[in-house]
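Review box. Two proteins, two foldings.
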Amino acid sequence: MTSPLPNADHARSFDAVATEYAANRPSYPPELFELIEARVAHPLAETEVLDVGAGTGIASQLLNQHGARVTAVEPSEPMATQLNVAHPGLPLVRADGNALPFTSGHFDLVTYAQSWHWTEPERSVPEALRVLRPGGTLALWWNVPDHDVEWIRGQWDRIAAATPEHTRFATSDNAASIIAGLGLGLAPVEDELRWTRSVPLDTHLDHLATHSALAVLPPEQSAPIIDAERESVQAEFPEGIVEERYVVRLVLVRAPGDGTAAA
Protein backbone atom coordinates (compact mmCIF):
# COMPACT_ATOMS: atom_id res chain seq x y z
CA MET A 1 0.00 0.00 0.00
CA THR A 2 1.31 3.42 -0.87
CA SER A 3 0.26 6.93 0.07
CA PRO A 4 -0.18 10.03 -2.09
CA LEU A 5 2.94 12.10 -2.45
CA PRO A 6 2.92 15.15 -0.21
CA ASN A 7 1.89 18.38 -1.93
CA ALA A 8 4.94 20.65 -1.94
CA ASP A 9 2.86 23.84 -1.88
CA HIS A 10 1.07 22.71 1.26
CA ALA A 11 4.31 21.60 2.90
CA ARG A 12 5.92 24.98 2.15
CA SER A 13 2.88 26.87 3.44
CA PHE A 14 4.34 26.72 6.95
CA ASP A 15 7.23 28.96 5.89
CA ALA A 16 4.89 31.95 5.82
CA VAL A 17 3.30 31.23 9.21
CA ALA A 18 6.32 30.03 11.20
CA THR A 19 6.07 32.83 13.77
CA GLU A 20 2.36 32.25 14.29
CA TYR A 21 2.96 28.49 14.45
CA ALA A 22 5.49 28.93 17.27
CA ALA A 23 3.16 31.23 19.20
CA ASN A 24 -0.16 29.45 18.84
CA ARG A 25 0.16 25.74 18.07
CA PRO A 26 -0.82 23.42 20.95
CA SER A 27 1.77 21.48 22.89
CA TYR A 28 1.40 17.85 23.97
CA PRO A 29 0.17 16.51 27.33
CA PRO A 30 2.62 14.92 29.80
CA GLU A 31 0.63 11.67 29.54
CA LEU A 32 1.87 11.24 25.97
CA PHE A 33 5.47 10.87 27.05
CA GLU A 34 4.49 8.58 29.91
CA LEU A 35 2.66 6.42 27.36
CA ILE A 36 5.67 6.32 25.04
CA GLU A 37 7.94 5.30 27.93
CA ALA A 38 5.51 2.56 28.93
CA ARG A 39 5.22 1.22 25.41
CA VAL A 40 8.96 1.16 24.68
CA ALA A 41 9.68 -0.07 28.23
CA HIS A 42 12.56 2.36 28.55
CA PRO A 43 12.78 5.80 30.19
CA LEU A 44 13.31 8.78 27.93
CA ALA A 45 16.11 9.99 30.16
CA GLU A 46 19.47 9.50 28.42
CA THR A 47 17.74 8.18 25.30
CA GLU A 48 19.20 9.25 21.95
CA VAL A 49 16.26 10.79 20.08
CA LEU A 50 16.02 12.07 16.52
CA ASP A 51 12.99 14.37 16.19
CA VAL A 52 12.23 14.66 12.47
CA GLY A 53 10.12 17.48 11.10
CA ALA A 54 10.69 19.26 14.38
CA GLY A 55 9.10 22.50 13.21
CA THR A 56 9.46 25.17 15.86
CA GLY A 57 10.68 22.63 18.43
CA ILE A 58 7.51 21.96 20.44
CA ALA A 59 8.07 18.21 20.79
CA SER A 60 11.87 18.45 20.70
CA GLN A 61 11.94 20.63 23.79
CA LEU A 62 9.46 18.44 25.67
CA LEU A 63 11.56 15.36 24.92
CA ASN A 64 14.61 17.29 26.08
CA GLN A 65 12.84 18.19 29.31
CA HIS A 66 12.26 14.48 29.91
CA GLY A 67 16.02 13.97 29.84
CA ALA A 68 16.37 12.71 26.28
CA ARG A 69 19.38 13.70 24.18
CA VAL A 70 17.52 15.22 21.25
CA THR A 71 18.70 16.10 17.77
CA ALA A 72 16.10 18.04 15.79
CA VAL A 73 15.69 17.75 12.02
CA GLU A 74 13.78 20.42 10.11
CA PRO A 75 13.85 21.26 6.37
CA SER A 76 12.16 24.69 6.53
CA GLU A 77 14.42 27.66 7.17
CA PRO A 78 11.69 29.85 8.78
CA MET A 79 10.58 27.02 11.06
CA ALA A 80 14.19 26.20 11.96
CA THR A 81 14.78 29.86 12.75
CA GLN A 82 11.89 29.82 15.20
CA LEU A 83 13.28 26.67 16.79
CA ASN A 84 16.69 28.27 17.23
CA VAL A 85 15.15 31.39 18.77
CA ALA A 86 13.05 29.45 21.26
CA HIS A 87 15.57 26.68 22.01
CA PRO A 88 19.05 27.97 21.14
CA GLY A 89 20.92 25.08 22.72
CA LEU A 90 19.05 22.33 20.90
CA PRO A 91 21.09 20.57 18.17
CA LEU A 92 19.43 21.18 14.80
CA VAL A 93 20.13 19.70 11.37
CA ARG A 94 18.50 21.03 8.19
CA ALA A 95 17.20 17.94 6.40
CA ASP A 96 14.05 15.88 5.94
CA GLY A 97 12.92 12.37 6.76
CA ASN A 98 13.26 11.05 3.23
CA ALA A 99 17.07 11.27 3.40
CA LEU A 100 18.47 11.45 6.92
CA PRO A 101 22.13 12.58 7.03
CA PHE A 102 23.10 10.33 9.95
CA THR A 103 25.06 7.13 10.38
CA SER A 104 23.18 3.88 10.71
CA GLY A 105 22.20 2.45 14.08
CA HIS A 106 22.73 5.61 16.12
CA PHE A 107 19.35 6.47 17.72
CA ASP A 108 17.12 4.75 20.25
CA LEU A 109 14.00 6.64 19.19
CA VAL A 110 12.99 8.44 16.00
CA THR A 111 10.00 10.72 16.45
CA TYR A 112 7.66 12.57 14.13
CA ALA A 113 5.35 15.01 15.92
CA GLN A 114 2.69 16.32 13.57
CA SER A 115 4.98 15.86 10.56
CA TRP A 116 5.24 12.31 9.18
CA HIS A 117 2.45 12.89 6.65
CA TRP A 118 4.76 15.29 4.77
CA THR A 119 7.20 12.48 3.97
CA GLU A 120 7.17 9.71 1.39
CA PRO A 121 6.64 6.59 3.54
CA GLU A 122 8.47 4.33 1.08
CA ARG A 123 11.58 6.39 1.81
CA SER A 124 11.09 7.78 5.32
CA VAL A 125 10.27 4.51 7.08
CA PRO A 126 13.36 2.64 5.78
CA GLU A 127 15.44 5.70 6.67
CA ALA A 128 14.09 5.70 10.23
CA LEU A 129 14.83 1.98 10.54
CA ARG A 130 18.34 2.53 9.20
CA VAL A 131 19.29 5.18 11.78
CA LEU A 132 17.65 3.30 14.67
CA ARG A 133 19.60 0.87 16.80
CA PRO A 134 18.30 -2.73 16.67
CA GLY A 135 15.09 -2.83 18.69
CA GLY A 136 14.74 0.96 18.63
CA THR A 137 11.38 2.62 18.09
CA LEU A 138 9.80 4.85 15.48
CA ALA A 139 7.08 7.00 17.08
CA LEU A 140 4.61 9.11 15.12
CA TRP A 141 1.96 11.27 16.72
CA TRP A 142 -0.61 13.92 15.90
CA ASN A 143 -2.81 16.34 17.81
CA VAL A 144 -6.16 15.79 16.09
CA PRO A 145 -9.17 18.03 16.86
CA ASP A 146 -11.73 15.86 18.64
CA HIS A 147 -14.54 15.47 16.11
CA ASP A 148 -16.73 13.86 18.73
CA VAL A 149 -17.26 17.44 19.94
CA GLU A 150 -20.06 19.00 17.90
CA TRP A 151 -18.65 22.51 17.51
CA ILE A 152 -15.22 21.17 16.49
CA ARG A 153 -16.74 18.83 13.94
CA GLY A 154 -18.78 21.72 12.55
CA GLN A 155 -15.74 23.96 12.33
CA TRP A 156 -13.72 21.48 10.30
CA ASP A 157 -16.69 20.64 8.10
CA ARG A 158 -16.96 24.34 7.25
CA ILE A 159 -13.22 24.65 6.58
CA ALA A 160 -13.28 21.57 4.33
CA ALA A 161 -16.22 23.01 2.40
CA ALA A 162 -14.45 26.36 2.02
CA THR A 163 -11.17 24.79 0.84
CA PRO A 164 -12.23 22.02 -1.58
CA GLU A 165 -8.88 22.19 -3.37
CA HIS A 166 -7.04 21.11 -0.21
CA THR A 167 -5.78 17.52 -0.56
CA ARG A 168 -6.02 15.28 2.46
CA PHE A 169 -2.74 13.45 2.92
CA ALA A 170 -1.83 10.30 4.80
CA THR A 171 -2.09 11.25 8.47
CA SER A 172 -3.03 9.57 11.71
CA ASP A 173 -6.10 8.01 10.09
CA ASN A 174 -4.10 5.59 7.96
CA ALA A 175 -0.45 5.84 9.05
CA ALA A 176 -0.42 2.38 10.65
CA SER A 177 -1.94 0.69 7.62
CA ILE A 178 0.49 2.45 5.28
CA ILE A 179 3.48 1.30 7.34
CA ALA A 180 2.15 -2.25 7.63
CA GLY A 181 1.66 -2.31 3.86
CA LEU A 182 5.23 -1.37 2.96
CA GLY A 183 6.33 -5.00 2.91
CA LEU A 184 8.96 -4.53 5.62
CA GLY A 185 7.45 -6.96 8.11
CA LEU A 186 6.54 -4.20 10.55
CA ALA A 187 3.67 -4.35 13.05
CA PRO A 188 2.61 -0.82 14.04
CA VAL A 189 0.76 -0.38 17.33
CA GLU A 190 -1.75 2.43 17.78
CA ASP A 191 -2.73 4.34 20.91
CA GLU A 192 -4.64 7.49 21.63
CA LEU A 193 -5.34 9.82 24.51
CA ARG A 194 -7.54 12.85 24.95
CA TRP A 195 -6.66 16.23 26.39
CA THR A 196 -7.93 19.81 26.49
CA ARG A 197 -6.44 23.27 26.42
CA SER A 198 -8.27 26.55 27.04
CA VAL A 199 -7.08 29.57 25.08
CA PRO A 200 -8.31 33.07 24.17
CA LEU A 201 -10.41 33.29 21.01
CA ASP A 202 -7.63 35.14 19.14
CA THR A 203 -5.14 32.36 19.96
CA HIS A 204 -7.58 29.76 18.69
CA LEU A 205 -8.07 31.63 15.42
CA ASP A 206 -4.36 32.33 14.96
CA HIS A 207 -3.70 28.62 15.54
CA LEU A 208 -6.39 27.72 13.01
CA ALA A 209 -4.71 29.92 10.40
CA THR A 210 -1.47 27.89 10.67
CA HIS A 211 -3.10 24.73 9.28
CA SER A 212 -2.02 24.07 5.72
CA ALA A 213 -5.57 24.16 4.32
CA LEU A 214 -5.67 27.85 5.23
CA ALA A 215 -1.97 28.78 5.26
CA VAL A 216 -1.65 27.82 1.60
CA LEU A 217 -4.32 30.38 0.62
CA PRO A 218 -3.64 34.04 -0.14
CA PRO A 219 -4.84 36.38 2.65
CA GLU A 220 -7.81 37.62 0.67
CA GLN A 221 -9.14 34.05 0.60
CA SER A 222 -8.19 32.88 4.09
CA ALA A 223 -9.30 36.03 5.97
CA PRO A 224 -13.05 35.62 5.27
CA ILE A 225 -12.90 32.00 6.45
CA ILE A 226 -11.20 33.02 9.70
CA ASP A 227 -13.66 35.90 10.17
CA ALA A 228 -16.59 33.51 9.79
CA GLU A 229 -15.02 31.18 12.36
CA ARG A 230 -14.60 34.08 14.77
CA GLU A 231 -18.34 34.63 14.69
CA SER A 232 -19.18 30.94 15.06
CA VAL A 233 -16.71 30.25 17.88
CA GLN A 234 -17.65 33.45 19.71
CA ALA A 235 -21.25 32.23 19.76
CA GLU A 236 -20.07 28.92 21.26
CA PHE A 237 -17.79 30.60 23.84
CA PRO A 238 -19.24 34.03 24.63
CA GLU A 239 -16.71 34.54 27.44
CA GLY A 240 -13.94 34.52 24.83
CA ILE A 241 -12.05 31.48 26.21
CA VAL A 242 -12.14 28.53 23.82
CA GLU A 243 -11.96 24.96 25.10
CA GLU A 244 -10.02 23.08 22.42
CA ARG A 245 -10.30 19.32 22.75
CA TYR A 246 -7.80 17.00 21.09
CA VAL A 247 -7.14 13.34 20.51
CA VAL A 248 -3.43 12.55 20.39
CA ARG A 249 -3.03 9.62 18.00
CA LEU A 250 0.20 7.69 18.49
CA VAL A 251 1.70 5.06 16.19
CA LEU A 252 4.71 3.07 17.40
CA VAL A 253 6.90 0.71 15.37
CA ARG A 254 9.74 -1.39 16.80
CA ALA A 255 12.75 -1.72 14.52
CA PRO A 256 13.98 -5.25 13.80
CA GLY A 257 16.52 -6.56 16.23
CA ASP A 258 14.75 -7.96 19.26
CA GLY A 259 12.03 -10.00 17.57
CA THR A 260 9.11 -7.93 18.85
CA ALA A 261 6.97 -5.00 17.79
CA ALA A 262 6.39 -2.06 20.08
CA ALA A 263 3.47 -2.92 22.35
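Next protein.
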Amino acid sequence: MTYRPVSGMDLARFAGIPTFMRLPHVPADDPRRAEVDIGLIGMPWDGGTSNRPGARHGPRSLRDASTMVREMNRATGQVPYDHAAIADLGDAPMSPVDQDEALDALAATVATATGQGIRPLSVGGDHLCTLAMLRGLARAGAPTPGLVLLDSHTDLYPPYFGGRTLTHGNPFRQAAAEGLIDPHRSTMIGMRGTAYDTEDFDHAADLGIEIVTTDAMLDRGLAATAALARDRMDGGPAYLSFDIDFIDPAFAPGTGTPEVGGPTSNEALRITRALHGVDLIGADLVEVSPPFDTGGITAWLGASVLFELLCLMVPRS
Protein backbone atom coordinates (compact mmCIF):
# COMPACT_ATOMS: atom_id res chain seq x y z
CA MET A 1 0.00 0.00 0.00
CA THR A 2 1.23 3.50 -0.79
CA TYR A 3 0.56 6.42 1.53
CA ARG A 4 -0.65 8.86 -1.09
CA PRO A 5 -3.82 10.90 -1.51
CA VAL A 6 -6.65 9.53 -3.60
CA SER A 7 -6.45 11.48 -6.85
CA GLY A 8 -9.33 13.56 -8.11
CA MET A 9 -8.63 11.85 -11.43
CA ASP A 10 -9.76 8.56 -9.88
CA LEU A 11 -12.52 9.64 -7.46
CA ALA A 12 -14.33 12.97 -7.42
CA ARG A 13 -13.14 15.22 -4.62
CA PHE A 14 -16.63 15.46 -3.15
CA ALA A 15 -16.92 11.65 -3.03
CA GLY A 16 -15.62 9.06 -0.62
CA ILE A 17 -14.98 9.22 3.12
CA PRO A 18 -13.05 12.43 3.91
CA THR A 19 -9.67 12.13 5.59
CA PHE A 20 -6.92 14.71 5.90
CA MET A 21 -5.50 15.20 2.39
CA ARG A 22 -7.47 12.08 1.25
CA LEU A 23 -4.78 9.95 2.91
CA PRO A 24 -5.38 6.48 4.35
CA HIS A 25 -6.90 6.27 7.81
CA VAL A 26 -4.61 4.28 10.11
CA PRO A 27 -6.16 3.94 13.60
CA ALA A 28 -4.28 3.04 16.78
CA ASP A 29 -4.69 -0.72 16.46
CA ASP A 30 -3.74 -0.89 12.77
CA PRO A 31 -0.48 -2.80 12.09
CA ARG A 32 0.30 -0.28 9.34
CA ARG A 33 1.25 2.18 12.10
CA ALA A 34 4.77 0.73 11.93
CA GLU A 35 5.11 2.15 8.43
CA VAL A 36 3.91 5.71 9.11
CA ASP A 37 6.41 8.58 9.33
CA ILE A 38 4.04 11.54 9.80
CA GLY A 39 0.59 11.20 11.32
CA LEU A 40 -2.23 13.74 11.12
CA ILE A 41 -4.28 13.85 14.33
CA GLY A 42 -7.59 15.60 14.91
CA MET A 43 -8.02 17.55 18.16
CA PRO A 44 -11.81 18.14 18.32
CA TRP A 45 -11.96 20.23 21.48
CA ASP A 46 -12.52 23.88 22.36
CA GLY A 47 -13.13 23.75 26.12
CA GLY A 48 -10.37 26.30 26.63
CA THR A 49 -12.07 28.96 24.51
CA SER A 50 -12.60 32.23 26.35
CA ASN A 51 -15.18 33.86 24.07
CA ARG A 52 -16.52 32.42 20.80
CA PRO A 53 -16.52 28.59 20.68
CA GLY A 54 -16.70 26.34 17.64
CA ALA A 55 -13.14 25.19 16.99
CA ARG A 56 -14.12 21.69 18.16
CA HIS A 57 -15.57 21.33 14.68
CA GLY A 58 -12.29 22.32 13.03
CA PRO A 59 -10.87 18.84 12.36
CA ARG A 60 -13.99 17.66 10.55
CA SER A 61 -14.15 20.86 8.52
CA LEU A 62 -10.46 20.66 7.64
CA ARG A 63 -10.76 17.04 6.55
CA ASP A 64 -13.49 18.01 4.13
CA ALA A 65 -11.67 21.09 2.82
CA SER A 66 -8.37 19.23 2.45
CA THR A 67 -9.87 16.92 -0.18
CA MET A 68 -9.03 19.81 -2.54
CA VAL A 69 -5.29 19.61 -1.78
CA ARG A 70 -3.33 17.97 -4.59
CA GLU A 71 0.02 16.15 -4.32
CA MET A 72 2.48 18.82 -5.49
CA ASN A 73 3.40 22.09 -3.84
CA ARG A 74 3.58 24.33 -6.88
CA ALA A 75 5.66 26.98 -5.11
CA THR A 76 8.45 24.62 -4.01
CA GLY A 77 8.07 21.67 -6.36
CA GLN A 78 7.71 19.36 -3.37
CA VAL A 79 5.68 16.19 -3.42
CA PRO A 80 5.80 15.27 0.27
CA TYR A 81 4.39 11.80 -0.32
CA ASP A 82 7.53 10.91 -2.28
CA HIS A 83 9.60 11.26 0.90
CA ALA A 84 7.44 10.05 3.79
CA ALA A 85 4.62 7.68 4.61
CA ILE A 86 1.82 9.99 5.79
CA ALA A 87 -1.55 8.95 7.18
CA ASP A 88 -4.62 10.22 9.02
CA LEU A 89 -4.45 8.71 12.51
CA GLY A 90 -7.99 9.81 13.39
CA ASP A 91 -9.12 12.02 16.28
CA ALA A 92 -7.91 11.96 19.86
CA PRO A 93 -10.82 10.88 22.12
CA MET A 94 -11.14 14.23 23.91
CA SER A 95 -13.96 14.67 26.42
CA PRO A 96 -16.09 17.71 25.58
CA VAL A 97 -16.93 18.31 29.26
CA ASP A 98 -13.76 17.55 31.26
CA GLN A 99 -10.63 19.60 30.55
CA ASP A 100 -8.19 17.36 32.40
CA GLU A 101 -9.52 14.21 30.73
CA ALA A 102 -9.50 15.85 27.31
CA LEU A 103 -5.94 17.12 27.51
CA ASP A 104 -4.66 13.86 28.98
CA ALA A 105 -6.34 11.85 26.21
CA LEU A 106 -4.64 14.00 23.58
CA ALA A 107 -1.27 13.78 25.34
CA ALA A 108 -1.63 9.99 25.48
CA THR A 109 -2.54 9.84 21.78
CA VAL A 110 0.51 11.92 20.85
CA ALA A 111 2.81 9.98 23.17
CA THR A 112 1.69 6.69 21.62
CA ALA A 113 2.23 7.93 18.08
CA THR A 114 5.59 9.49 18.93
CA GLY A 115 6.68 6.29 20.65
CA GLN A 116 5.91 4.48 17.39
CA GLY A 117 8.28 6.77 15.53
CA ILE A 118 5.52 8.95 14.07
CA ARG A 119 5.90 12.73 13.99
CA PRO A 120 2.54 14.35 14.79
CA LEU A 121 0.89 17.06 12.71
CA SER A 122 -2.32 17.94 14.48
CA VAL A 123 -5.45 19.93 13.74
CA GLY A 124 -7.56 21.67 16.39
CA GLY A 125 -9.45 22.63 18.25
CA ASP A 126 -8.47 25.62 20.36
CA HIS A 127 -4.91 26.58 21.23
CA LEU A 128 -4.85 24.90 24.63
CA CYS A 129 -4.61 21.66 22.64
CA THR A 130 -1.00 22.57 21.88
CA LEU A 131 -0.11 22.21 25.56
CA ALA A 132 -1.29 18.59 25.44
CA MET A 133 0.66 18.05 22.23
CA LEU A 134 3.85 19.22 23.95
CA ARG A 135 3.09 17.08 26.99
CA GLY A 136 2.65 14.05 24.76
CA LEU A 137 5.97 14.62 23.02
CA ALA A 138 7.73 14.96 26.38
CA ARG A 139 5.98 11.87 27.74
CA ALA A 140 7.38 9.89 24.81
CA GLY A 141 10.91 11.11 25.53
CA ALA A 142 11.18 13.58 22.66
CA PRO A 143 13.80 16.33 23.06
CA THR A 144 12.61 19.70 24.35
CA PRO A 145 11.83 21.83 21.31
CA GLY A 146 12.13 25.50 20.64
CA LEU A 147 8.79 27.00 19.65
CA VAL A 148 7.86 28.88 16.51
CA LEU A 149 4.44 30.46 17.00
CA LEU A 150 2.51 32.12 14.18
CA ASP A 151 -0.36 33.85 15.95
CA SER A 152 -1.87 37.24 16.63
CA HIS A 153 -1.62 36.55 20.39
CA THR A 154 1.24 35.36 22.58
CA ASP A 155 -0.97 33.05 24.68
CA LEU A 156 1.31 33.89 27.61
CA TYR A 157 -1.23 35.43 29.97
CA PRO A 158 -1.90 33.93 33.41
CA PRO A 159 -5.19 32.06 33.95
CA TYR A 160 -8.28 34.26 33.95
CA PHE A 161 -10.27 35.31 37.03
CA GLY A 162 -7.32 34.68 39.32
CA GLY A 163 -7.88 30.92 39.20
CA ARG A 164 -5.95 27.92 38.00
CA THR A 165 -8.10 26.79 35.07
CA LEU A 166 -6.17 27.04 31.82
CA THR A 167 -7.54 28.52 28.61
CA HIS A 168 -6.35 29.05 25.08
CA GLY A 169 -4.87 32.30 26.37
CA ASN A 170 -2.07 30.63 28.35
CA PRO A 171 -0.81 27.33 26.84
CA PHE A 172 2.71 28.65 26.32
CA ARG A 173 3.00 30.20 29.76
CA GLN A 174 2.16 26.77 31.15
CA ALA A 175 4.38 24.97 28.65
CA ALA A 176 7.35 27.07 29.68
CA ALA A 177 6.57 26.46 33.38
CA GLU A 178 6.51 22.71 32.75
CA GLY A 179 9.77 22.79 30.77
CA LEU A 180 8.04 21.64 27.58
CA ILE A 181 9.64 24.30 25.38
CA ASP A 182 13.04 25.98 25.34
CA PRO A 183 12.22 29.72 25.62
CA HIS A 184 15.68 30.84 24.55
CA ARG A 185 15.17 29.15 21.17
CA SER A 186 11.54 30.26 20.79
CA THR A 187 10.06 32.97 18.57
CA MET A 188 6.50 34.32 18.48
CA ILE A 189 5.47 36.06 15.27
CA GLY A 190 2.41 38.12 14.34
CA MET A 191 1.27 39.71 17.59
CA ARG A 192 -1.08 42.68 17.17
CA GLY A 193 -4.35 44.22 18.31
CA THR A 194 -5.46 45.55 21.66
CA ALA A 195 -4.28 44.12 24.98
CA TYR A 196 -5.19 44.06 28.65
CA ASP A 197 -1.68 45.22 29.59
CA THR A 198 1.95 44.29 28.88
CA GLU A 199 1.94 41.21 31.13
CA ASP A 200 2.40 38.76 28.25
CA PHE A 201 5.22 40.69 26.54
CA ASP A 202 6.93 41.23 29.88
CA HIS A 203 6.71 37.52 30.65
CA ALA A 204 8.16 36.69 27.23
CA ALA A 205 11.11 38.97 27.92
CA ASP A 206 11.67 37.35 31.32
CA LEU A 207 11.65 33.89 29.73
CA GLY A 208 13.88 34.85 26.80
CA ILE A 209 11.24 34.42 24.09
CA GLU A 210 11.61 36.69 21.05
CA ILE A 211 8.42 38.47 19.93
CA VAL A 212 8.02 39.86 16.42
CA THR A 213 4.83 41.87 16.04
CA THR A 214 2.92 41.95 12.76
CA ASP A 215 4.24 45.44 12.01
CA ALA A 216 7.80 44.38 12.76
CA MET A 217 7.40 41.27 10.60
CA LEU A 218 6.18 43.30 7.63
CA ASP A 219 8.87 45.95 8.14
CA ARG A 220 11.60 43.33 8.48
CA GLY A 221 10.30 41.18 5.64
CA LEU A 222 8.89 37.67 5.66
CA ALA A 223 12.09 35.86 4.70
CA ALA A 224 14.18 37.79 7.23
CA THR A 225 11.65 37.11 9.99
CA ALA A 226 11.68 33.39 9.18
CA ALA A 227 15.48 33.47 9.19
CA LEU A 228 15.44 35.04 12.64
CA ALA A 229 13.28 32.22 13.98
CA ARG A 230 15.42 29.60 12.27
CA ASP A 231 18.66 31.12 13.58
CA ARG A 232 17.30 31.21 17.13
CA MET A 233 16.52 27.50 16.83
CA ASP A 234 20.28 26.94 16.43
CA GLY A 235 19.79 23.65 14.60
CA GLY A 236 17.92 22.08 17.49
CA PRO A 237 14.48 20.42 17.56
CA ALA A 238 11.49 22.65 16.93
CA TYR A 239 7.73 22.70 17.31
CA LEU A 240 5.61 24.94 15.07
CA SER A 241 2.14 26.08 16.11
CA PHE A 242 -0.01 28.00 13.63
CA ASP A 243 -3.11 29.79 14.90
CA ILE A 244 -5.39 30.66 11.99
CA ASP A 245 -5.98 34.09 13.57
CA PHE A 246 -2.39 34.90 12.59
CA ILE A 247 -4.02 35.76 9.26
CA ASP A 248 -6.17 38.85 8.82
CA PRO A 249 -9.88 38.03 9.30
CA ALA A 250 -10.61 39.40 5.83
CA PHE A 251 -9.05 36.13 4.65
CA ALA A 252 -9.83 33.91 7.66
CA PRO A 253 -13.07 35.04 9.35
CA GLY A 254 -13.81 31.61 10.80
CA THR A 255 -11.99 31.91 14.11
CA GLY A 256 -12.93 32.72 17.68
CA THR A 257 -10.60 35.65 18.40
CA PRO A 258 -9.95 37.57 15.17
CA GLU A 259 -7.54 40.51 15.08
CA VAL A 260 -7.59 42.96 12.16
CA GLY A 261 -4.43 44.26 10.53
CA GLY A 262 -2.81 40.91 9.90
CA PRO A 263 -1.01 39.33 6.95
CA THR A 264 -2.78 38.22 3.81
CA SER A 265 -3.25 34.56 2.99
CA ASN A 266 -0.37 34.80 0.51
CA GLU A 267 1.95 36.34 3.10
CA ALA A 268 0.99 33.65 5.62
CA LEU A 269 1.79 30.86 3.19
CA ARG A 270 5.07 32.51 2.19
CA ILE A 271 6.40 32.93 5.73
CA THR A 272 5.44 29.35 6.51
CA ARG A 273 7.39 28.10 3.49
CA ALA A 274 10.33 30.32 4.48
CA LEU A 275 10.69 28.35 7.72
CA HIS A 276 11.99 25.39 5.72
CA GLY A 277 15.04 23.86 7.34
CA VAL A 278 13.71 24.01 10.89
CA ASP A 279 13.89 20.53 12.43
CA LEU A 280 10.23 19.92 13.30
CA ILE A 281 9.41 17.15 15.74
CA GLY A 282 5.75 18.18 15.58
CA ALA A 283 3.38 20.90 14.45
CA ASP A 284 -0.23 21.96 14.62
CA LEU A 285 -2.89 24.19 13.09
CA VAL A 286 -5.52 25.48 15.51
CA GLU A 287 -8.50 27.78 16.05
CA VAL A 288 -10.41 27.21 12.79
CA SER A 289 -14.02 27.70 13.91
CA PRO A 290 -16.47 26.65 11.17
CA PRO A 291 -19.54 28.33 12.74
CA PHE A 292 -17.92 31.71 12.05
CA ASP A 293 -16.65 30.83 8.58
CA THR A 294 -17.93 32.39 5.37
CA GLY A 295 -18.38 30.09 2.41
CA GLY A 296 -15.70 27.75 3.76
CA ILE A 297 -12.86 30.17 2.97
CA THR A 298 -11.21 29.78 6.38
CA ALA A 299 -11.33 26.00 6.15
CA TRP A 300 -9.81 26.05 2.68
CA LEU A 301 -7.09 28.45 3.79
CA GLY A 302 -6.48 26.25 6.84
CA ALA A 303 -6.15 23.18 4.61
CA SER A 304 -3.63 25.06 2.48
CA VAL A 305 -1.62 26.04 5.58
CA LEU A 306 -1.78 22.43 6.77
CA PHE A 307 -0.24 21.28 3.50
CA GLU A 308 2.56 23.84 3.88
CA LEU A 309 3.23 22.55 7.40
CA LEU A 310 3.35 19.02 6.04
CA CYS A 311 5.86 20.12 3.40
CA LEU A 312 8.05 21.62 6.13
CA MET A 313 8.28 18.19 7.75
CA VAL A 314 9.79 16.46 4.70
CA PRO A 315 12.83 17.13 2.48
CA ARG A 316 12.50 19.43 -0.51
CA SER A 317 14.51 17.23 -2.85
